[in-house]
Structure formats: C-alpha cells, structure tokens
Amino acid sequence: MAVHCIITGRVQGVWYRAWTEKEASALGLSGWVRNLPDGSVEALFSGPEAVVREMIGRCRSGPPLANVDGIAETPAALPEEQGFTIRD
C-alpha cells in the first residue's frame, strides 16, 4: 500500500525530514519526504500496510524537537523507485 501524508505543526527546522528518512528506511519502506513552503512536511510511505501504519504512528510524535499537530492521509500510487529519500 502507499499513503500520501501532510504533516503539520512544528515540523520544519527540527530535523523532521532526516528523522523520517531514518525511521522509514529502518522499517524497509519506500517513498520520500520533503518540506513544503507553508511549513508543513509532505511524505509518501509505501510498503506492507502494517508497516506503513507503524510509520504514520511514529510520525505523530516525530523527533524530539517536533510538535506534530496533525497528519492528513490520502491513498497514493506506489512509487516508481525502491528505497526512501529526502526530496528538495
């Protein structure tokens, strides 16, 4: 499965993207993460449903300096590439 997420709150300038890449890679997920101009973070997580749900659960807390207000989830197409990356 693949899920597109918009994560809001204090999620930029707190190492959220690097943390997300580390966590998603450790779980064996594919996808990407990037900052958006409005201060939110956008991510695509792809893998087994239980593992994607685990990652989204972890994103609700994020790294120590983050303060997540919410995560909007929508179904997504599977990414073309394997592995997890940070996008500009």
What can you tell me about this protein's structure?
This protein has a single domain, classed as Alpha-Beta Plaits (2-Layer Sandwich), CATH 3.30.70. Helices cover 25% and strands 38% of the residues. It has 2 helices and 5 strands. A 5-stranded mixed sheet has the order 4-1-3-2-5, covered by helices on one side. The longest helix is centred in the first third of the chain and has 11 residues, at 16-26. It is globular.
Integer tally of domains = 1
Which band does the percent of strand residues land in?
A: 35-45%
Would you tell me the overall average pLDDT? 97
Task: Determine the CATH topology.
Answer: Alpha-Beta Plaits
Largest sheet properties: 5 strands, mixed
Strand arrangement, major sheet: 4-1-3-2-5
Distance between the termini: 24 Å
The structural class is alpha+beta
Oligomeric composition of the shown chains: single chain
Which geometry do the CA atoms define?
globular
Number of helices: 2
Give me the count of strands. Answer: 5
